[in-house]
Amino acid sequence: MASNTLRFLQAIAPIVLLARLAQASAQPQRQPSQLLPPGVARPGCRDRCGNITIPYPFGIGAGCYREEYGFELLCDDARSPPRLTISGGYQLASLSLSAGEVRIYLNATRKCYNVTTGAFVDRNDDASLALGSASPYRVSPTKTRLVATGCPTIGYFVDGAGYFVSGCTSVCRPAQYAVEGQGPCTGVGCCQSAIPSDIYYYEPNTLSLQLQAGKLDPILGANVTTCQYVFLADADWFSYTDSVFFNRTDDFAAPVVFDWAVRNVGNCSAAKLNMTDYACRSRDSECVPSSNGAGYRCNCSQGYEGNPYLDGGCRDIDECLRPDEYQCYGNCTNLPGHYICKCRPGTDGDPRQRNGCRPKDKFTPALKVVTASGCSCQCSCASGSTWGYRRGSSSERSRGSSSRTGASSCSSRCAPTPAPAPAQAGSRYSPRRSWRRRPTASPPTVSSAAAGTASSTGASSRTRRWWPSRGPR
């Protein structure tokens, strides 16, 4: 009988093992692939050009971009590296879906003169920008500056009607009279100017400060450069240094930050009136009004990430897989759109701080012992309790002197404070005198335990204790 049972168990063991392996593989597990960002382009569409990711509503090729002027991109794979451009042939340096920004390279306007005669020598005016009001792009007023370099010059730009929009003046001092601590690009050799909002047309120019007969005013012509430049630039990219820009004579392009938005309607309210053309397609997305000109953008709702311009493009963030980013170092529970963070059982504190959860306090609320420096200790009681030396044996009394000097640990204990007894007729008891000393000589003076000596009223004085009174006698 036993042998039959053994043979049966040996026969079914592989079946049980396979069943358990199948059950384990069927359980959902967090794989690293789930941490990858969701699809950014439309299915079947190209999502990269060189090292630049192309998220929808931008795209390359028919059906891959939002059917609206400005969202179609072109990739020139014949170049190395491949070059991505927007409408008008402007080179795209980077594109951000969440920030609503692109960086585009624009050429600098250059004019060069003969420093002796002031005669014009050479120029490069291929730096204008004409996108049109229907374009999704606007020059960023917060991250872009108009810059002019060279001396002496006024750098400025005009709008589509030919009127002045923004500009600044750059003048140089003689080298021997250079100002110590002169800030970067503050008017000496370089100047910069802010950009107003809703700029989609830009025509730069420089105005020479040359006077009659090719002569310059001594104040303006103290230190003349061969070439003068005016250009738009990302404020974080541009850092003026004499060695780079002061005597420059070549052509260059600078990255310029643009804000982009869907601009077929003026705002979110107008966009939601036509849900067929509404750009925010994901269920877990929200509309954000444009901060630079008319229009709107889309963002994933809080707790979600991805592409809000695609159906199902916003996906829940599993904050528990990113403890450093979302600050949870306890027990983390992921929920749709948010998460719960608690200290582990048996601990309490702040689970959103590293080592913020500590084991729960196991001391009774009546007694807390705080260790001090040296070998002495202090005892304190919670509200509603009192403490005192407990009445010890004769051997303990003989060690009283060392106890008072801190050579031993606290031998006290806390007890509930008794309610004061009512005063009886003819009694001299008072609650304020509930602690009285027995008649004795003056109490001994206790020295620090760290000093290693126990002082008293005299070397041969008898050690005395202080005892709580027993109340009225």
UniProtKB/TrEMBL annotation:
Q: What name has this protein been given in UniProt?
A: EGF-like domain-containing protein
Q: Does the keyword Ion transport belong to this entry?
A: no
Major localization listed first in the record, in broad terms: membrane
Q: Where in the cell is it found?
A: Membrane
Q: Which organism is it from?
A: Zea mays (Maize)
Provide the topology term for how it sits in the membrane: Single-pass membrane protein
Please provide the record's keywords in A-Z order: Disulfide bond, Signal
Annotated signal sequence range: 1-26
Composition-biased stretches, type Low complexity, lie in 400-429, 443-461
